[in-house]
Design brief:
Blueprint lengths: L1 H14 L4 H5 L6 E4 L8 E7 L3 E7 L5 E7 L4 E6 L2 E9 L5 E10 L2 E11 L5 E9 L2 E11 L5
Antiparallel strand pairs: 1-2, 1-10, 2-3, 3-4, 5-6, 6-7, 7-8, 8-9, 9-10
């Protein structure tokens, strides 16, 4: 039921009028996405919010949901979740084809810097690339999502 409601909201958002700032900084990410080749994977739905902002809703196979918002105006936003505190700042890339999110966090007393880039490939996949630096250690993670084609 939750997936159907979110899918309907996402589909409606694709045709609803939106603010020009949002059109230029995030509307291409609106929709529901899943890991390619898996029928039972979690789904990630991206919905527009005023601000401009995006709401990310992750729906696990058991139906539980996790939500977060991302402001797209370049202002720093405080973070206090999962034992981490700090800030994040999202902005479109210069060519407006990617969203870049910089963050500085302290998790369990350990400071880290993180950059995440959201992009859409020419084949229509949604990529989330994250680089994290803690002291002298760097980590990179890539998550690829395909558009959800069925909602039942």
């Amino acid at each position: 039921m939750g997936i159907l409601m979110i899918a309907a909201l996402a589909a409606g958002a694709l045709v609803a009028p939106v603010a020009s700032a949002q059109t230029a900084t995030g509307l291409e990410f609106v929709g529901c996405w899943t890991t390619p080749g898996t029928e039972t994977a979690a789904r990630l739905c991206v919905l527009p919010e005023p601000g401009p902002a995006l709401r990310f809703v992750t729906i696990a196979p058991d139906g539980t949901q996790r939500e977060s918002s991302l402001r797209l105006d370049g202002e720093r936003t405080a973070i206090d979740a999962n034992g981490c505190e700090g800030w994040e700042q999202a902005r479109p890339s210069a060519d407006r084809e990617r969203l870049v999110v910089d963050a500085q966090l302290t998790c369990g007393g350990v400071a880290q810097k993180r950059t995440t880039v959201f992009s859409i490939t020419p084949a229509g996949y949604f990529l989330q690339t994250t680089g994290t630096g803690i002291a002298m250690v760097a980590n990179t993670q890539l998550q690829m999502y395909a558009p959800v084609t069925t909602y039942i």
